[in-house]
Amino acid sequence: MDSVSLARGVPAPECLAEAELAECAKSVLERDGKTILSYDSGAGYKPLRELIGTWFDVPASRVLLTNGSLQGFVLLMKHYGTDRPVFVELPTYDRPLKLMRGEGIEAVAVDTDDDGLAPAALERALAENGDPAFVYTIPTFQNPSGRSIPAARRRELVEIARSHGVVLLEDDPYGRIRFEGETPPSLYELAPELTLYSSSFSKTVAPGLRVGWLIVPDDLSGPLVELANATYISPALLGQATIFEFITRGLYEPNLERVNGLLQARRDAMLASLEKHFGGARWMRPEGGYFIWLELPEGTNAAEVLARAEGVTAVLGTYFGGAPNTLRLAYSFVSPDEIEVGIERLASAA
Questions:
Q1: Pairing mode of beta strands 291-295, 212-215
Q2: CATH 3.90.1150.10 intervals, the chain
Q3: What angle do CA 301, 99, 294 make, to 5 degrees?
Q4: Count of Cβ atoms closer than 10 Å to residue 142 Cβ
Q5: N or C: which end of the chain has fewer CB within 10 A?
Q6: 285/267 Cα distance (integer angstroms)
Q7: Which CATH class name applies to 4-15+253-349?
């Protein structure tokens, strides 16, 4: 078997509904081609904005479509500027960290535990670092850790944010990739007045379509649309219209059920392989998402383990702010059989 990638946090090829999406793209081009092949507002394809607005009980004016959810982070980063820090989880998604470093924005790391962002750590960070532009959190099946914040803690975090007048940016690309367990309320549901909500269709439909969205208050939507217009003139309307057609044809929910079944089999294969091959290491059982956070025995250098492991790749936890003995393992891209081989190779090198 060739090299096994436990690094790629992307959907497996069989997760992609190619034929259905091709039909949807053809249909919207025939019906609305003059619109979606031309320029339009940076806010994005209005029918999809209106549809997403019904999901969140907000007008379309508060929905901004983005080129994946990461672009929403970029627009917010540019809007808030460099004067105030951004609070992030430790560990957290590495792309925002790179973006903030490039812009000279201070990222203040807030400690987490097995239940995600720790309330006491957030209180401490607020006391020591003043007023952040916002708190960036991935509360459900976090990248990289796979952890989810329980409902009671979400309420506690929201009360802390409310008492300090702090804005929360809830990044939720994995929330619907759930295999088991109860879905907790989103931070946005608990505190819509202080939460900016970000998500995308990259994990539930297809990353190549590059369709994400932001739910923002009215006073923020105008400035962000202006930034979008100045950055890329017009959004990629074809992908947005294709997603709209996919949903309105009733394909979204059945596809999500199919995708979740494929991913659950991979998650289960990785958990079984870790149990079989790894001793002395620690990991959690995520109820959904793409990732498992592997903590090797204390004092182990994960970079050295990866260097010894032939024919398998993973991502060092240090890329996300994690300890030197940690690795992010992605089960979303490879088959269950490949996962078994990859974990066995990794364990042999540990």
A1: unpaired
A2: 4-15+253-349
A3: 25
A4: 26
A5: N
A6: 9
A7: alpha beta
The single residue listed with the structure tokens 């182990």 is 300
Tell me which DSSP letter residue 279 carries: S
Span 312-329, pLDDT tens digits: 999 999 999 999 999 999
Q: What share of the chain is helix, strand, coil (3-state, %, to 5)?
A: 50, 15, 35
- Following DSSP, what letter does each residue of 197-231 receive, concatenated? EEEESTTTT-GGG--EEEE--HHHHHHHHHHHHHH
- 188, pLDDT greater than 70: yes
The β-bridge relationship of strands 195-200 and 212-215 is antiparallel
For residues 10 and 198, what is the distance between their CA atoms, to the nearest angstrom?
Answer: 18
Residues of the chain with CATH 3.40.640.10: 18-248
**pLDDT interval class at 130 (50, 70, 90):** confident
- Judged by DSSP in three states, 242 sits in helix
Specify the pTM. Answer: 0.96
Peptide bond into 150 cis (omega under 30): no
Q: Which CATH architecture has domain 18-248?
A: 3-Layer(aba) Sandwich (3.40)
**180 has which bridge partners?**
none
The phi and psi torsions of 79 (rounded to 5 degrees) equal -65, -45
Residue 1 has pLDDT above 70, yes or no: no
Going by C-alpha positions, the residue among 312, 242, 241, 237 that lies closest to residue 277 is 312
